[in-house]
Design a protein that fits this description.
This protein is mainly beta. The chain has one domain. Helices cover 12% and strands 50% of the residues. The protein is built from one helix and five strands, in the order ββαβββ. The strands form two sheets. A three-stranded antiparallel beta sheet has the order 2-4-3, covered by helices on one side. Strands 1-5 form a two-stranded antiparallel ribbon.
Length: 68
């Protein structure tokens, strides 16, 4: 069960990461996480040369879910 407090406004964005050797491997995701965003969900949106392209839904604001 997850409980999320939505009193504070939140903002969601999408960040994609790419396999090793691509321009944006994980640098953009790390920059966003360093700004205080947290990952809400991650999906594999493609495979290129044996590596996964991952799409992260990240959120800023509100409280993080507390899982029990």
């Amino acid at each position: 069960m997850a409980v999320i407090d939505r009193e504070a406004p939140s903002r969601q964005i999408v960040v994609r990461t790419y396999p090793h050797g691509w321009i944006n491997e994980t640098q953009e995701l790390q920059k966003i996480l360093d700004k205080g965003y947290h990952v809400v969900m991650c999906n594999c949106v493609g495979v290129v040369n044996g590596g996964n392209i991952l799409e992260y839904i990240v959120e800023y604001g509100g409280k993080r879910a507390e899982c029990y």
